[in-house]
């Protein structure tokens, strides 16, 4: 695991965007695994700015998002499909037909998860998977539990995750209690993984991810076993990690 320490959120976002843009420049047909949440927004804005200048071209890229709330359609303003459109896809030259998010509107959890696993496998899995990390160490919506998950599955969100995500809703009561998410095994199939983290509230989770035991109670700790994982985080998020 390679750790890159940055000064602040802006520096983190720019360095993460550098990694992603290099992937796309070197392989224009790249398959990207993408994440939502507030942490990657700065990275997406930087990539969009470079795309507008003609420095990076997303026209042949395909994307596969980690997760989606169960019960929300693509048109719902709180859905991750809508989030990706407004924060990234609408600002780059990507073919929207090549963007994929789990179908949260499908009430049949087994079918929705099976279908998403199939299309991710048919794409050959991501060349680069972008991840954030939750305060409890979750990646995607893979919450702490007794074992590491495998394929896409439905999860019941923990109270800490619901509370953390409530900042994007009018009230905590509006946050969906279930989601569809790629499993940890699927995430580990990516050829490279990029984790972004910022803020002191992520310091415990980042330390456990990088230096703690590999334990499903901290799902992100499995990334220690990936052969090509880079963590880009600011000083606050890395405040509990040794500087060397």
Key phrases:
single chain, 244 residues, alpha/beta, 7 helices, 17% strand
Would you kindly provide a written description of the structure presented here, covering whatever features stand out?
The strands form 2 sheets. A 7-stranded parallel beta sheet has the order 1-10-9-6-2-3-5, covered by helices on one side. A 3-stranded antiparallel beta sheet has the order 4-8-7, with helices on one face. The protein has one domain: 3-Layer(aba) Sandwich (Rossmann fold). 30% of the residues lie in helices and 17% in strands. The chain is globular and about 45 Å long. By secondary structure, it is an alpha/beta fold.
Distance between the termini: 13 Å
CATH architecture: 3-Layer(aba) Sandwich
Amount of beta strand: 15-25%
Strand segment count: 10
- Sketch the major β-sheet: 7 strands, parallel
Helix content: 25-40%
Under the CATH scheme, which class? Answer: Alpha Beta
Content-based structural category = alpha/beta
Shape type: globular
CATH fold topology: Rossmann fold
Low-confidence stretches: none
Count of discrete alpha- or pi-helical segments spanning 4 or more residues:
7
Please outline the helices and strands.
Elements: E1 2-6, H1 9-26, E2 31-34, H2 41-53, E3 62-65, E4 67-69, H3 80-87, E5 99-100, H4 109-122, E6 128-131, E7 153-156, H5 159-165, E8 178-181, H6 184-188, E9 193-197, H7 203-211, E10 229-234
Parallel strand pairs: 1-10, 2-3, 2-6, 3-5, 6-9, 9-10
Antiparallel strand pairs: 4-8, 7-8
Helix pairs in contact: 1-2
């Amino acid at each position: 695991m390679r750790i890159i320490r940055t000064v602040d959120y802006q520096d983190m976002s720019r360095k993460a965007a550098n990694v992603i843009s290099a992937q796309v420049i070197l392989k224009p047909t790249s398959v990207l695994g993408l994440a939502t949440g507030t942490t990657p927004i700065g990275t997406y804005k930087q990539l969009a700015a470079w795309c507008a200048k003609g420095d990076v071209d997303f026209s042949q890229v395909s994307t596969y998002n980690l997760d989606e709330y169960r019960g929300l359609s693509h048109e719902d303003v709180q859905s991750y499909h809508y989030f990706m459109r407004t924060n990234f896809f609408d600002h780059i030259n990507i073919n929207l037909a090549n963007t994929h998010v789990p179908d949260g509107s499908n009430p049949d959890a087994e079918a929705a998860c099976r279908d998403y696993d199939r299309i991710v496998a048919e794409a050959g899995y991501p060349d680069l998977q972008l991840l954030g990390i939750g305060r409890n160490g979750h990646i995607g919506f893979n919450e702490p539990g007794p074992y590491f998950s495998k394929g896409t599955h439905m999860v019941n969100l923990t109270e800490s995750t619901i509370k953390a995500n409530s900042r994007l809703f009018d009230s905590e009561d509006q946050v969906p209690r279930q989601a569809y998410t790629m499993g940890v095994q699927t995430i580990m199939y990516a050829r490279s993984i990029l984790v972004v983290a910022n803020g002191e509230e992520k310091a415990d989770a980042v330390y456990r991810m990088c230096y703690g035991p590999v334990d499903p109670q901290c799902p992100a700790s499995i990334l220690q076993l990936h052969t090509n994982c880079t963590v880009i985080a600011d000083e606050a998020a890395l405040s509990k990690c040794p500087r060397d």
